[in-house]
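User: Show me a protein chain along with its predicted structure.
Assistant: Here is one chain, sequence first, then structure tokens.
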Amino acid sequence: MPKRAKTPPIDDGAKYLTIVGPYPAHPNMELEQHRREFSRWLASCTGSSYLRAFYHKPTVRLTRFTRSGRVV
């Protein structure tokens, strides 16, 4: 079995921030206007010099239906 590649070194100067309740509420990051509003809101809170990029992890809501049409 091949060995796993070495983990690259982490930039110790990097800072990460997780946002749970963003502005605008429930933004659609596929829309440019929502990305701009979110970026401006974040820059107004932290300062524009800290914002380099942001990563959006979409949530997946699984809805399962039975044959009778009820939601499980």
